[in-house]
Design goal:
Layout lengths: L2 E7 L1 H4 L10 H16 L4 E5 L5 H8 L10 H25 L4 E3 L2 H4 E4 L2 E5 L2 H8 L3 E5 L1 E5 L3 E5 L1 H12 L4 E8 L20 E2 L4 H9 L10 H12 L4 E6 L5 H6 L7 E3 L2
Amino acid sequence: MERLYLVKLGGSLITDKTKPYTERREVIERLCREVAYAKRRGVKLILGHGGGSYPHTSAKLYRTAEGIVNKRSTYGLGVVHYDAAELNRIVMRTLLDLGVPAISFQPSAFAYCNNGRIKRIFLLPLLKALELEVLPVVYGDVALDSTKGCCIISTERILAKLARELRKFYEIIIVMCGIVDGVYTADPLKYKDARLIPLINRKNIKEVEDYLSGSHGIDVTGGMLHKVRMLYELAKYGIRSHLINGNEPGLLKRVLMGEKVRGTIIEY
């Protein structure tokens, strides 16, 4: 079965979350060059990226994750989508300037939710893009919701749903690029004694959950406990995940070329 990588560039990695609407242009350009390198060598992938300081700013203002809660909610829905798309345009422009045949897939147009969870997703255009060797690019976005009216769907949830659906056609490997080396015993941005966990599987998942839910792990960037649980559930379907540091030049390229690198692997 042909291999397909689902790659996520974290919002904290490609934007400065301390400054609204501020991308890290040099990081975006470097990571897109690494994707372009792998794509030219025949690696099949879907690229996803977080929103960081773009849609998060307006989503907080309009309480979009809560749904339609007041008279400003429907207007806010449009603003949050616009902000998410703005960052996506920067990523897309970078890929196109590098000669990568890429096309953006707007999640609010192909996914439908119920109470914040993706229930239906339309795959045919994305499958056709992969067949044509075009790079699909998805991103965290708003979505319409049958219960709440609207919600936020993160890039991770989108890629998780795609992984479940596409495993019928491909061998799926997920690559999460963040601002730390992987999963640690505590928040490495706060605690110097935090240790990297190179492998998470059924033998140590409970121990890892204890680390991440403890007082030293509760504030790990990106909600690491939720992320680990989600990826471990995917591992039960044979979907392996790699968590790596996107700030380290060349690391994403090496993973996509099948090399073993520093980070955390999650498997069953």
